[in-house]
Specification:
Among the domains are: 96 residues, no CATH class; 60 residues, no CATH class. By secondary structure, the chain is mostly helical. Strand 1 and strand 2 form a beta hairpin. It contains 9 helices and 2 strands; from the N terminus they run H-H-H-H-H-H-H-H-E-E-H. The chain has a two-stranded antiparallel ribbon with strand order 1-2.
């Protein structure tokens, strides 16, 4: 529905008329009813669980140390040490938390504290936590520098992926040349830092999961290697 008065149809509203039109369509005449809290992006459901968990840790810390304020350098350093000493690591045989794990948990906490309290932790405190954990707490607690071993696409994975695309993908393509495009996208995903979402100018996300498909025996399932979803499925649906 247009907000332009009938007499103004056919010409553009000037600035004063635009303000009046906005008020006529329901705009409050003063901003006192609007909250002054900063607006942050909404967290994904899984991320929200992680952020809430770190904030619960802070609430327990506050109960133990009343008056704690993460906007102060001393408090944040103390809380970072609490996180480092209480986190059980998975990569170290002795159960030590890793430097990266503690850095991530502290970063998540600071972000969630700002969300919950609508206040800002000073940049100098934010920026100090990462080197403080890396250069001081790593030796003081101590923390492990172990990192999870990277995973790679094996030759067998690659063969199964191409076999699935060229021999076991029963989608009825309008143009068989589309398989060439899909094969190129798979190679870019696996062997380069290219983002398929940007290459395809897509608004949906890429999800990379193992796929299970039936072989010639309908009663049995066998894994056929990794398969791309999201971009790949939408691309295939158009061809």
């Amino acid at each position: 529905m247009s907000i332009k008065p009938a007499k103004t149809r056919g010409r553009r509203l000037n600035a004063d008329e635009q303000i009046e039109a906005a008020i006529t369509s329901g705009l409050a005449e003063n901003s006192s009813s609007i909250d002054c809290n900063p607006v942050r992006s909404k967290l994904a459901p899984k991320s929200k669980l992680k952020y809430d968990s770190e904030y619960h840790m802070w609430e327990a810390y506050e109960r133990k140390f009343p008056g704690a304020d993460p906007r102060t350098m001393q408090c944040m350093k103390h809380f970072a040490e609490v996180v480092g000493r209480s986190t059980v690591g998975r990569l170290d045989e002795g159960g030590m938390a890793t430097v990266k794990t503690v850095q991530n948990k502290v970063r998540v906490f600071m972000s969630q504290w700002e969300r919950e309290n609508h206040q800002t932790i000073p940049p100098k405190v934010h920026k100090s936590m990462r080197p403080y954990i890396q250069d001081y707490l790593r030796h003081e607690i101590p923390l492990s520098e172990a990192e999870k071993a990277p995973t790679f696409l094996t030759i067998q994975n690659y063969l199964e992926m191409e076999e699935l695309l060229w021999q076991k993908d029963y989608h009825n393509y309008d143009h068989e040349g589309s398989r060439v495009d899909l094969s190129a996208l798979l190679k870019m995903h696996c062997y380069s830092s290219a983002r398929l979402q940007e290459i395809c100018q897509a608004k949906y996300k890429v999800r990379y999961t193992p796929e299970v498909e039936k072989d010639n025996n309908p009663s049995a399932n066998q894994p056929t290697g990794p398969r791309l979803h999201g971009v790949m499925e939408r691309w295939r649906a158009r061809n």
